[in-house]
Design brief:
alpha/beta; seven-stranded parallel beta sheet; two-stranded parallel sheet; 11 helices; 45% helix; globular
C-alpha cells in the first residue's frame, strides 16, 4: 500500500512512519526540506512540498492509496489542511486519515481546535474515504519538562485537577496505522484516549515514585506559566495554549465510556499506562545524565 505521510518529521508522524514501515507499507514523506531529513528511514521516499505553496505539491500525491494528514499548529493551519485535502482529491487518492483533536463542546473556542474544523469539513465533502482521529494530550509532551522534573522537582504543565485521559504517541501511531491499512474504519471519527484519568497532582506523584525524589505539581497559575511561555515560543502560540490550559483546568478532557469503547475498536490493544511511560522515560533520562557526566569527566 502506498501512503503519503504529511507531518512525518514530528513526534507523531515519525512514530507513524516507523510503524508503517514495520508493516511493509510503501511510505512517502512530504517535507519542505527532504535533504535535511532523508538520512532517516532509508526505506521511505522523501519528497519536497510545502502546504503554504500549492504549486510545490505537483506530483506529490500521485499514485497513492492513502494520505495521512497532520497539520502543525500555525496561524495558517486551516489553509494548509484544506490545501492538502484538495491536492489529494485532485490526484484521485481514495483514503485520507486526519489527526485532529478532541472536539468537546467546552473546547471549541480554543484557537488550534477551531482551526481544525474547516479541515474536517473539507475532508467530509471531498468524496474520499476518511477517518478522523481525536487523540488526547500526549504523554510525550512531558519530554520538555525533563529539567523541571529532575533538577527542580516540579511538574509545570498546567493541566489542573479535573483530569485528562492522556495517551502515548506509540498508541496514536499504532491506531493510525490501523486506520490507514485496515478496512472498516472509513467514514468514522475515533477518540484515542488512555484509560486513566490523570490530574496534575497524580502526574507529579507518578514522577515522584519513579525518580525517587519529591516532584510537586505547580501548574495552576496560568499567568506565571504565560510569562515564562512567551520567552520560549511566539506570543500567539502562548496565548493559544493558555486558552487550552484554562479549559483543561475548568473542564478537563475526559473520555466517556463510549469513547473508550471506540478507541479500543481502532487501537485493538490496551493503551500503554502512564506509569509504564514514566518508568521508561525516567530510566532513559537518568542514563542520559550518567552518560553525559562520564563523557565530560
Amino acid at each position: 500500500m502506498n501512503i503519503l505521510v504529511i507531518g512525518g518529521t514530528g513526534t507523531v508522524g515519525s512514530q507513524l512512519v516507523s510503524e508503517l514501515l514495520s508493516r511493509k507499507a510503501s511510505v512517502r514523506i512530504l517535507t519542505r526540506n527532504p535533504s535535511k531529513n532523508q538520512h532517516k528511514y532509508m526505506n521511505s521516499e522523501w519528497i519536497h512540498g510545502d502546504l503554504e505553496e500549492p504549486g510545490s505539491l505537483e506530483g506529490a500525491f500521485d499514485q497513492l492509496d492513502a494520505v495521512f494528514l497532520l497539520t502543525s499548529m500555525s496561524q495558517t493551519e486551516t489553509i494548509q489542511g484544506v490545501t492538502a485535502v484538495k491536492a489529494a482529491r485532485k490526484a484521485g487518492v481514495r483514503k485520507i486519515v486526519y489527526l485532529s483533536a478532541p472536539m468537546n463542546e467546552s473546547m471549541l473556542h480554543i484557537p488550534h481546535i477551531k482551526s481544525k474544523i474547516g479541515i474536517e469539513e473539507e475532508i467530509k465533502r471531498s468524496g474520499m474515504d476518511y477517518t478522523i482521529l481525536r487523540p488526547n494530550n500526549f504523554f510525550q509532551n512531558d519530554y520538555g519538562f525533563r529539567d523541571a522534573i529532575l533538577k527542580n522537582g516540579i511538574y509545570p504543565q498546567p493541566l489542573g485537577s479535573v483530569g485528562l485521559n492522556r495517551i502515548d504517541v506509540e498508541d496514536i501511531a499504532y491506531a493510525t496505522a490501523n486506520a490507514l491499512l485496515l478496512n472498516g474504519f472509513e467514514g468514522k471519527e475515533y477518540p484515542i484516549y488512555g484509560s486513566e484519568v490523570l490530574t496534575g497532582d497524580r502526574i507529579a506523584e507518578t514522577y515522584s515514585l519513579h525518580t525517587g525524589a519529591t516532584v510537586r505539581y505547580i501548574g495552576d497559575d496560568l499567568d506565571a506559566w504565560y510569562q515564562h511561555a512567551i520567552t520560549i515560543m511566539p506570543e500567539w502560540l502562548a496565548q493559544d495554549f493558555c486558552v487550552m490550559y484554562k479549559c483543561f483546568q475548568s473542564f478537563g478532557c475526559l473520555g466517556t465510556a463510549q469513547d473508550i469503547i471506540l478507541q479500543q475498536q481502532l487501537l485493538q490493544r490496551e493503551p500503554k499506562s502512564f506509569e509504564d511511560f514514566v518508568a521508561e522515560t525516567v530510566t532513559r533520562w537518568k542514563n542520559e545524565r550518567t552518560n553525559t557526566h562520564e563523557e565530560s569527566s
